[in-house]
Design goal:
Helix content: 25-40%
Low-confidence stretches: none
Largest sheet: 6 strands, mixed
Strand content: 5-15%
CATH class of the largest domain: Alpha Beta
Mean pLDDT: 96
Distance between the termini: 26 Å
């Protein structure tokens, strides 16, 4: 008879580096922990492996220059727009910096009052009091500053995201605010959709309303190559900054990795685990 419910253990592993056999590391680390701390593995046990170490072991990195080269191949023009990025500096800043280096003009369309994951560009109560309608109103930075002030800091990070992202270019970045992706087509027909869950709809809307070159972040760095990292399914989606000029991509071949971990545990322990 069991007297406890779910038990969670953090398993200590060696430092994981590029090229490591992560399947063997996971297996060996859990078996050592099981033996050393006297707990048994059971059918249905769940093994969670953070995506970061999977990418690290796969050497799944791209540099800022490699991002710029791939974007330029897909957008062989002088002007580009980025639509509805999330505001996380860790996820978007190096992508923008890479792109701003190789285009004369970069237009950024931000959703408001917040990005897709809830980072606010303005106080939603003040937006309501000012009579702004996020479903129909589109405007530029001048109106944004007139309405909300010369400095609009994020409540928790203390960052004015509009100022910060403009600072990543050489006075070649323009910022606009709208939840309608069609608004950006007034400025350029070359658009990189940077949203996540709504990206297919965004690309469809842009193409149907005059967009000439339209891709998403999932289309950048998605080609298989031995020269740099890549993710065939997600491209730059899920990437994050790991140094001043390098991004770690979302791990590739996740299903194959999970199945191999399950297979090795079944072989070594006879247990059917979930990964």
């Amino acid at each position: 008879m069991r007297y406890t419910g779910t038990v969670v253990r953090g398993i200590r592993t060696p430092v994981i580096t590029s090229g490591d056999d992560l399947v063997s590391i996971v297996l060996d680390s859990i078996l050592r922990a099981s033996k050393g701390e006297k707990f048994d593995l059971k059918d249905g046990d769940i093994i969670g492996i953070t995506e970061a170490v999977v990418s690290i072991s796969q050497r799944n990195y791209v540099t800022a220059d490699e991002v710029a080269i791939d974007v330029k191949k897909k957008f062989p023009v002088k002007e580009i727009a980025l639509v509805h990025p999330i505001l996380s500096r860790n996820r978007f800043s190096l992508i923008l910096e890479s792109i701003a280096k190789v285009y004369d003009k970069v237009h950024i369309l931000l959703s408001y009052p917040a990005d897709e994951v809830g980072n606010h560009l303005m106080d939603p109560d003040k937006m309501y009091d000012l009579g702004l309608n996020p479903y129909s109103d589109s405007f530029g930075e001048t109106k944004y500053r007139n309405l909300f002030g010369e400095e609009v800091k994020h409540r928790f990070t203390g960052v004015d995201y509009v100022k910060y992202y403009k600072s990543l270019g050489d006075e070649n970045i323009k910022i606009y605010f709208s939840n309608d992706p069609k608004f950006i087509l007034k400025y350029t027909k070359n658009v990189l959709a940077c949203d996540i869950h709504t990206r297919e709809r965004t690309k469809k809307i842009l193409k149907e309303n005059g967009g000439e070159i339209v891709y998403g972040l999932d289309d950048i760095c998605n080609r298989k190559t031995s020269k740099r990292g890549y993710n065939k399914e997600y491209g730059l989606l899920g990437s994050n900054k790991v140094s001043e000029n390098k991004l770690k991509l979302f791990p590739r071949d996740g299903n194959e990795f999970v199945l191999e971990v399950q297979k090795r545990f079944k072989k070594e322990t006879g247990k059917d685990v979930e990964v």
